[in-house]
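Predict structure. Chain length: 308.
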Amino acid sequence: MDRAAQGDAAVLDTYQLQTFLAVAETGSFTAAARRLHLTQPAVSRQIQLLQEHLGVRLFRRAGRRMLLTHAGERLLETARQVTRLAQRAEEEMALLRGEVTGRLRIGGTGSPAWHVLARLLPAFRAAYPAVVLQLEPLPPGQSSLALRDGPLDLIVGEEPAQERGLSSILLQGMETVLVAPPEPRWEQRKRLPLRKISDLPLILPAQGSPPRNFLEEVFRSRQILLPVPPRALEVADPGMALPLVAAGLGAALFPHPVLEITRAPVHLIALWPSFSWTIYLVHRSRPLSQAEEAFVRFVEEQGRVLVR
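Prediction complete.
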């Protein structure tokens, strides 16, 4: 092998590092393949080539999940830094051509977040067509971790930034309404005193989730008790609440705009005094990629108008 060939063989492949990160962050060859739009054998092959190149095992199997070995854990942060630098280089060259490019990975924490993103993204895509958008649902309480250590660049949800190094922008405050079951007692009701919520069988977001934390803070500030199990029913996904309300299992609290397209046979009742369901964009304070910076600037300039 000549010296040039030896040099090529010694170069670490950034594509293989991106594949390694996808497997490490999803814990699965199958999920990584979906993220990268590849076949599972192609992902397995890239990991095999990377392990052969480095001379170490990077993953071990634990049931259905792929976990990092000690060598894989050592490689993880370096792989993130290398792929960020490679992306930054591509973005800077694109800027010289007058373009904003890159991949933007946005997490949403529930129905209100997706409602807001659905209002924002069409205009953003029209303004920045070269930016690749990747949207992912985010488990409750994972916002800070997903931005600090995980695969996401931006998060839209109920909680503002709560850690050093993260910043947030208030996107929208949406009127909260009571979603009541299809029962005769609710048919003529237009408004309900907030204190009456304590007397209802309520369907609530799971304990510790961002929407539950938000509701508890609102009611605590007004010295009103939220119902608790067994009177209340808790759901991991707030989107599950609507069919349960329609089935007569209880009432629920939702941002009114999210319910604009629902066809569930439920009654929407205003609350008095009213309160707003707040949604934030959370991002790293600095440094931002060109795509992240473009989205943050777009939200600051146009976001509040678009999501009304």
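Summary: The chain has three domains: 3-83, 86-169+279-306, 172-278.
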